[in-house]
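hiii so um. not sure if this is the right channel but i have a protein structure encoded as tokens and i wanna go backwards to a sequence. like what aa goes where. can anyone help
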């Protein structure tokens, strides 16, 4: 494996000057009835449950098993189909493609109409309906000319390549858009509700405004209505005070975790609580201030610029854009049980998305073709990892 060349001190200084003010952004810099999941202390755990919830070892390992696919253009979102195959979105091409995870063959489903790629905006997160077996719906988060929005589309693999996506049905619109800080992660939770992360487009007060959809984590039904049990009446807002959340994942106890861009000092990993205020723009990193929830772990902004996260083997695995590394954060309940550990530093460049492949396996998506990387032969790629 060829290591990427180390950037010279002069170039690094130039990049720092260019990105001052958005720093960590790298220039882009419950149960089925609703509500929050039951507390792990609400019932006595069986011996096997206690063992499964035990803290993982302080130190882990990562092995790159193989390259699943390559030559992808601005890949962003990744989702696994129940029958096999991976769906990947292209931010700038506004297309969704299916990857055969065994052969690496790529089949374009089609282009999503209405996408207006610019800056960090474009076609971003994608998710597969929890009722996919019966409805064959694919969900997507994208930037239009006027806003960020969430749509769902019928996927028909029997149609010719490039014509397999139905017309988009908008389920949520009017999410603030900007050149940067568009959020974009999309995922169905264990409660079968749809969660979305949004950014504050460089307008910090939006994050504290519960009437705005910017700087939030949203929770909604599959048709876009406020989910039952949400913390604020008739609202899809689930948590607020966020700058630009980029990763969402749930642990074995159905607790929600999120990664978030800081500004000039600290990037964050947060345990998300319904109705929680995560501080931005009043607090960056751990502020220990009443009324705000502190992050579980923080990083200097040149080490992370965090993007997607996944949970496997008792740890959060967090992809880093500017940091060009994969972080492992071992968990003990809602706390980190040891210091974060970095892997693959500089080996594959910018890392965008990470998705659990079951057990000790992860899929990892690189992001060298997003305008801020240095693409080499084969970029961008989907890698299969074995982790501990």
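sure thing!! here u go:
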């Amino acid at each position: 494996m060829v290591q990427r060349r180390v950037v010279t001190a002069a170039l690094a200084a130039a990049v720092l000057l260019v990105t001052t003010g958005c720093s960590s952004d790298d220039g882009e810099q419950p149960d089925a009835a609703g509500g929050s999941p039951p507390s792990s202390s609400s019932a006595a755990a069986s011996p096997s449950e206690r063992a499964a919830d035990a803290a993982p070892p302080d130190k882990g390992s990562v092995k790159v098993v193989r390259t699943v696919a390559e030559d992808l253009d601005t890949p962003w979102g990744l989702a696994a189909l129940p029958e096999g195959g991976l769906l990947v979105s292209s931010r700038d091409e506004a297309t969704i493609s299916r990857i055969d995870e065994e052969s690496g063959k790529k089949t374009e489903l089609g282009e999503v109409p209405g996408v207006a790629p610019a800056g960090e905006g474009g076609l971003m997160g994608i998710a597969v309906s929890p009722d996919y077996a019966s409805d064959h719906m694919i969900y997507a988060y994208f930037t239009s000319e006027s806003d960020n929005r969430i749509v769902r589309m019928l996927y028909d693999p029997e149609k010719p390549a490039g014509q397999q996506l139905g017309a988009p049905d908008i389920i949520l619109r009017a999410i603030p858009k900007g050149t940067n800080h568009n959020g974009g992660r999309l995922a169905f939770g264990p409660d079968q509700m749809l969660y979305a992360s949004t950014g504050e487009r460089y307008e910090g007060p939006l994050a504290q405004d519960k009437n705005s959809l910017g700087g939030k984590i949203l929770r909604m039904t599959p048709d876009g209505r406020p989910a039952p049990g949400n913390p604020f009446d008739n609202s899809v807002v689930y948590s607020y005070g966020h700058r630009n959340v980029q990763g969402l994942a749930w642990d074995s106890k159905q607790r929600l975790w999120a990664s978030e861009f800081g500004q000039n000092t600290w990037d964050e990993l947060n345990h998300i609580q319904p109705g929680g205020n995560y501080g931005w723009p009043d607090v960056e990193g751990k502020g220990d201030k009443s009324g705000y929830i502190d992050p579980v772990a923080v990083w200097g902004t040149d080490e992370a610029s965090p993007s997607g996260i996944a949970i496997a083997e008792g740890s959060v695995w967090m992809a880093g854009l500017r940091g060009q590394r994969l972080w492992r954060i071992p968990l003990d309940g809602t706390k980190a049980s040891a210091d974060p550990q970095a892997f693959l530093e500089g080996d594959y460049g910018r890392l965008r998305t990470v998705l659990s492949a079951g057990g000790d396996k992860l899929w990892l998506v690189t992001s060298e073709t997003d305008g801020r990387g240095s693409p080499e032969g084969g970029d961008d790629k989907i890698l299969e990892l074995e982790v501990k």
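oh and The chain is about 5% helix and 35% strand.
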